[in-house]
Amino acid sequence: MQNGFPPSPGSRELKVGVVGCGVMGRGIVQIAALAGATVYLVDSREGASQAAREELRATFAKLVEKGKLDAAAAADAGERLVACKGLDELAPCHVVVEAIVEDLEAKKSLFGTLEGIVGSEAILASNTSSLSVTAIAAGLQHPDRVAGFHFFNPVPLMKIVEVIGGFLTRPEITEYMLALGRQWGHTAVLAKDTPGFIVNHAGRGYGTEGLRLLAEGICSVPALDAILRDTAGFRLGPCELLDLTGLDVSHPVMESIYRQYYEEPRFRPQVLTRQMLTAGALGRKVGRGFYRYGADGKKEAV
Ligand code: NAI
């Protein structure tokens, strides 16, 4: 890095842009602001960045009520949230993390636009779950400053982040992102730019194989979840996890990993999740996935 740019991960001078104020973006903003960075929020949906800022301030207030956060720290983090109207407001950012739709062209186009806005030394990071970081960076003026920065849902609770270097990424960029992830309170691990990185690759043996058990009629959804949750030590069974993430997010990830591995049979997604996606049974967010969810969020077997 040149001339102390960007500031060290713990510095209160650090300015971080987060593009996409959905589930993941809001989580990333939360941990970044609580760690002392000034965070600039952008979303293409009108009013979304302002709504995310207010929601996060309310979250900080709740954490104070529960005794999990100091009132001064909550006020400081709340003041560090800058709701932007457009990407051009990200000009002062040292690091921009994107958490927009999982679509290669959308991410490439966003980073292309950002290159014309941020300084040439600013780091561009992607929260992609399944796309190639090398592909996202390809065609940019400075592909060597692009890295994957892959968090898990819910970000404040799932304290792990994968840092991925693309083919051209400079080692000091991944080193900086590893240090940043740690400073934000997460275990940061370096992964090669391969389909699914570490977690979603290893997870194929868990989720995809679990779905195969269902497709072959070997067990029920609750039985599959209970076995893996209560005996194998996972916090959620595979169907519970898919319901939490939403098939609109996770089914394309399954398909993408399968395609990127040249259709290797062990990664093949199941027809079942494609049908559920088509039927709109996405999971918790619509009240129906592998389980049905009541207004109180309680699940029952279908
Ligand atoms: P989401 O749908 O909750 O949020 C995406 C947000 O980005 C929306 O607010 C949308 O308005 C905004 N957006 C879309 N295109 C945009 C653009 N061009 N410019 C600015 N804003 C734009 O999605 P979610 O779940 O937060 O996922 C975001 C990214 O994180 C995806 O790449 C996804 O694969 C990845 N991811 C998701 C995880 C999950 O469990 N939901 C886990 C890890 C990664």
Automatic annotation (TrEMBL):
Domain 3-hydroxyacyl-CoA dehydrogenase C-terminal as annotated: residue spans: 196-293
GO BP, one annotated term: fatty acid beta-oxidation
Lineage start: Bacteria, Pseudomonadati, Pseudomonadota, Betaproteobacteria, Burkholderiales
Entry superkingdom: Bacteria
Full protein name: 3-hydroxyacyl-CoA dehydrogenase
Record keyword Oxidoreductase present: yes
Keywords, alphabetical: Oxidoreductase
Domain 3-hydroxyacyl-CoA dehydrogenase NAD binding: 15-194
GO molecular function, a single term: NAD+ binding
Keyword ATP-binding: no
